[in-house]
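> Could you send the Quercetin dioxygenase-like cupin family protein prediction when you get a chance?

Sure thing. Input:
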Amino acid sequence: MEIVRPEPETLRQISHHGSVGLTAQALLRTGSVAMTVLRVAPGGEIGDHPALRDQTLLITEGAGQVRSGDGPWHDVIAGDAVRWAAGESHTTRSAPGLTAVAVEVA
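Output:
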């Protein structure tokens, strides 16, 4: 067993792809799996970008909206999981703020 407790210095502010109010903190990185805690501040957005690998976003707190490409927005709440295939363009936004765990698998 291993307990992972992220260090504060691993917390990063992210502004790539026009992201606003986004912080990321790595939990796990191996050759085939990456797990990252993402926090979207109220009114924040994870800008449109392609998934580098198959990705699942598990909403753990709050609520928001997600979409693929230029498609329609879909509401998500804590407990929902959203999956995107590698290469699929996607965006996440939140009026009240949200916390999620992104799991990427090669």
